[in-house]
Specification:
Length: about 140
Amino acid sequence: MLTVKDVSRLLDLTEHTIRFYTDKGLVPSLKRDEHNKRLFDEESISWLTGIKYLKQCGMSVEDIKAYVDLCLEGHDTIEERYAIIEKQRAIAHEQLKEARDRVDFMEEKARHYHEILTKKMTDDTNPGKWHKEVQST
């Protein structure tokens, strides 16, 4: 069994976030010790991992709670859960595309700056200089 601190390190979530999620009832398999401290087993870690990813897709805590409740209802809710996951998958793909676009932008900027540095080219990327160049032409 793991403590909040252990799970925080394992999943890269703050202790506050973990407590918040458990207080909202998002981790149905949560255990507590004789001092009422939260204890997490593999199942609890699985719930938190899923919650983390759903939250990163932009899902609200309320919607995640509804999803958890559907999971607990069992097989009869498969279609609803599938629709939720498909929607979140589409969002994750869009986020991935946006991240790739950012990486491509940064790669191009780094390449350009490297060329300026190695070929001693003038810095044509600084917007502060654009106005001065227009005035001097």
